[in-house]
Specification:
single chain, about 550 residues, alpha/beta, seven-stranded mixed β-sheet, 24 helices
Length: about 550
């Protein structure tokens, strides 16, 4: 057991969630820290406390109440909070993060209890340095920031979006092992266009329509400048920014600071890892896949870019790789005769002349079903939030063209998924290899119980953070993310069991995170963005960097 020197006494110590042990303070500690009489006489272990906390959790009547309970526990005793999550990870991850965190963001102003993180509000734009200096702990390893404009599948939540960074960083600590006191959630409060929030008398944010254009860009620049001055070595993760801002922000800062966008790069890495694993199960190399992506937003294009780079690394030319990735959006096939495409989307536009003979729907556009029949597709990925878009005719067409169709309806939340796994397996006679963005129960088909992997970013970003911290990386490169995807694929249970889950079980994620983090750290060294050291030393640093929720012994600092 480690020993920590502590200067707080009495109620001040009990009110410090990172130090509070509650009933687990020993009799000697109660004497030394002026706690006698402030606690029940029984001295408990962390394990005993966890049993009581779980009983209280189970008494809550609905998922939002369970979320509120867990957040309150986090604000009271962080070690107990993480121990409880660790013991019940599969049950509680959907409560502390997706999908329940979306509801928590909607109700953020109504369930707000205690301050956590930082509010960088536009009226404070000239005081950003002071705001950042008010952070609870001067030493920060990971920051997660959002502006609340595109929260999961529910849109603009304004300051309520802070629930996302709080939830993400809980997973950094729980699964990656980043020390919780060295994490920092931030909301960039640039207003909101959500009329319901603005009319809510309890709304806690800046009551103003959302900034845009040069005014918004200047505000973000000020924030980034403040982070560079105050926390130059911290990993800065951008989360749930609108399509119009997400990629420009990433491109503006990725080469000058330690940063990445989880919606673009994290989603892409998890999807790539699942595709790597699925291709192994199907017995086909990645470069031989023909991939159709429904959704041309930041996540869809990020997945396309990651897949193209991985195909090139698998031995085909860039042009051939691009031709094997077909993107469809709400206006149909993305092709180079369209005038409504961004520069990023245009990189995946098919030649209009090459697709001129493809069938078209009644409105004259080449839709998803037309594309799937024309290619034909071996992989179908949905990042569109178009519920039910993967219809029975589309899926059956894939199943006729390939023995093991790979189908990933990745949109969140559950009611936005492009298909339900049970339908996908039924329409393909159980042959589909399925992963989803939201949690779904196992499917019983053909006498088998088929687990459904949730292609959640949680499989990558906590491990990425651990690898970056252990390696002391200065940048996040695309190769580091692809290294994470390959390491994740290597941990797939489906490789040894063709009908097993494509991704590891939640209960195994802390162990898998060490392997993924080591792959990330090695790639950081290979890319020249981290100090060189022997691989065995690097691996030891990864293991040593992973924090575990347990109480240290306390030694008083004389007052």
């Amino acid at each position: 057991m480690s020993t920590v020197r502590v200067g707080l006494r009495g109620r001040r110590l009990l009110d410090a969630p990172l130090l509070n042990k509650g009933t687990a303070f020993t009799e000697i500690e109660r004497r030394d820290f002026d706690l006698i009489g402030l606690l029940p006489p029984l001295v408990e272990t962390l394990e005993q406390q966890t049993v009581r906390a779980y009983e209280a959790y189970r008494r809550k009547s609905d998922d939002l109440e369970r979320h509120i309970y867990l957040r309150a526990l986090q604000d009271t005793n962080e070690t107990l909070f993480y121990k409880l999550l660790l013991d019940h990870a599969e049950e509680m991850l959907p409560i502390i993060y997706t999908p329940v965190v979306a509801e928590a963001c909607v109700h953020f102003s109504h369930i707000y209890r205690r301050p956590r993180g930082l509010f960088v509000s536009y009226p404070l734009r000239d005081q950003i340095g002071q705001v950042l200096r008010n952070r609870p702990n001067p030493e920060v390893d990971v920051i997660v920031v959002t502006d609340g404009q595109r929260i999961l599948g529910i849109g603009d939540q304004g300051v309520g979006g802070l629930g996302i960074p709080i939830g993400k960083l809980a997973l950094y600590a729980l699964l990656g092992g980043i020390r919780p006191e060295r994490t920092l959630p931030i909301i960039i409060d640039a207003g909101t266009n959500n009329v319901e929030r603005l009319r809510d008398p309890e709304y806690l944010g800046w009551r103003h329509e959302r900034l845009n254009g040069s005014e918004y860009d200047a505000f973000v620049d000020r924030f980034v400048a403040g982070v560079r001055d105050e926390m130059p070595d911290a990993l800065l993760q951008w989360e749930d920014f609108a399509i119009a801002h997400a990629r420009p922000i990433l491109e503006r800062y990725r080469d000058t600071m330690l940063t990445f966008n989880d919606d673009i790069q994290g989603t892409a890495a998890v999807a790539l890892g699942a595709v790597f694993a699925a291709a192994k199960v199907a017995g086909r190399r990645l470069r031989d896949q023909t991939i159709v992506i429904l959704g041309a937003g930041s996540a869809g294009i990020g997945v396309a870019e990651s897949l193209r780079a991985a195909m090139i690394e698998d031995g085909i030319e860039a042009a051939d790789a691009a031709s094997r990735i077909v993107v469809v959006d709400k206006d149909g096939l993305v092709h180079d005769a369209r005038t409504d495409l961004s520069a990023e989307q245009r990189r995946f536009a098919q030649s209009a002349s090459a697709v001129a003979g493809w069938p078209k729907t009644a409105n004259g556009r080449c839709g998803l079903e037309d594309v799937v029949r024309s290619v034909p597709a071996t992989v179908l990925i949905g990042l569109s939030t178009a519920a039910g878009a993967f219809t029975e005719p589309i899926v059956r067409a894939m199943a006729r063209a390939t023995d093991r169709p790979i189908i990933f309806p990745l949109s969140n939340p559950t009611d936005r998924a492009e298909a339900v796994p049970a339908d996908l397996l039924r329409w393909t006679d159980g042959r589909a290899i399925v992963a989803t963005g939201s949690p779904f129960p196992p499917v019983e088909i053909g006498g088998r119980r088929v687990p459904i992997a949730q292609c959640n970013n949680v499989f990558v970003f906590p491990a990425l953070g651990l690898g970056v911290v252990a390696a002391k990386a200065r940048r996040v490169t695309d190769r580091m993310l692809r290294a994470a995807a390959r390491a994740l694929a290597d941990a797939s249970p489906a490789i040894s069991d063709p009908y097993g889950s494509l991704l590891p079980a939640i209960r195994d994620l802390r162990r898998v995170a060490v392997d993924v983090a080591f792959a990330v750290a090695r790639q950081a060294q290979d890319d020249g963005v981290a100090p060189a050291c022997p691989h065995d030393e690097l691996q030891a640093r990864v293991v040593a960097s992973q924090w575990t929720p347990e109480y240290p012994a306390f030694e008083p600092i004389p007052i």
